[in-house]
Amino acid sequence: MRYVPAACLRPGMILGKDVYSQDTVVLLAKDVQLTQGYIDSILKLVINGVYITDSISEDIKIESVISHELRVNAIKNIKQIYNNPKGISKSLDSVESIAKKILGEVLKNRSIMVNMVDIKTFDDFLYSHCVNVAVLSTVIGIALNLEESKLEKLAASALLHDIGKVFIPKSILDKEDNFTEEEDKTFKNHSEKGYRYIKTYHNSIAITSYVGILQHHERFDGEGYPDHKKGEKYLFLEEL
């Protein structure tokens, strides 16, 4: 099995893995032979690429760091939370549960090299992005030898890191770049809005989890936001 970018797909290729929509619905099943119509649909949906099986890659096995079942369940839960922030208090237990499950599977599969291409086959759509960030944050936390309780907080924070975007006008979120100065300021407020919302209304989760929401755009060189923390002032991991 091998990964092929969407632009390089050709009729007759055989899918090596299922292809999913942003809502985690199976669009094309494993072993389906691609037609030009299927390829056009993949391109239209802005799917980055797919896995195919052929004689070149028949002996190559692609393993995922977390199971597909967990990924789909996590995405569905994150979608529910982000689409209904007023009801998030009922869903926070599921966030913490998902964080524990992600940690458990990453620890179980820690010998597997993280397949960045596999991560990217689930597009950058907000919900799948949050799950990807949780997986990668957990992997990095393990590399930093954080204890399990801290890893769980880190994963929970990563799952919720973009919750503030639900309070940003869709017209700005859809624009993505070329912001006016005012639009840029509004967009950058998402980390603080998310932090304040969770801290004010849902502070039953660990304090460091919502601090992570506030700081997820900070950079070690001080060029991040909202507080331009730099070097040793960037203390989120130490505070976990």
Q: Describe it for me?
A:
The protein has 240 residues and is mainly alpha-helical. The chain is 49% helix and 7% strand. The strands form 2 sheets. Strands 1-5-2 form a 3-stranded antiparallel sheet. A hairpin with a 5-residue loop joins strand 3 and strand 4 (26-28). The protein is globular, with a radius of gyration of 19 Å.
Termini Cα gap = 40 Å
SSE class: mainly alpha
What is the spatial order of strands in the main beta sheet? 1-5-2
Would you report the number of β strands? 5
Biggest sheet, in brief?
A: 3 strands, antiparallel
Features:
single chain, 240 residues, mainly alpha, 3-stranded antiparallel beta sheet, 5 strands, 49% helix
Compact description:
This protein is mostly helical. It has helices at residues 36-44, 68-83, 92-108, 116-121, 126-143, 148-160, 170-175, 181-188, 190-201, 207-215, 236-239; strands spanning 2-5, 14-15, 19-20, 26-28, 49-53. β3 and β4 (26-28) form a beta hairpin.
Layout of secondary structure:
Layout: E1 2-5, E2 14-15, E3 19-20, E4 26-28, H1 36-44, E5 49-53, H2 68-83, H3 92-108, H4 116-121, H5 126-143, H6 148-160, H7 170-175, H8 181-188, H9 190-201, H10 207-215, H11 236-239
Antiparallel strand pairs: 1-5, 2-5, 3-4
Helix pairs in contact: 2-3, 2-5, 3-5, 3-6, 5-6, 6-10, 9-10
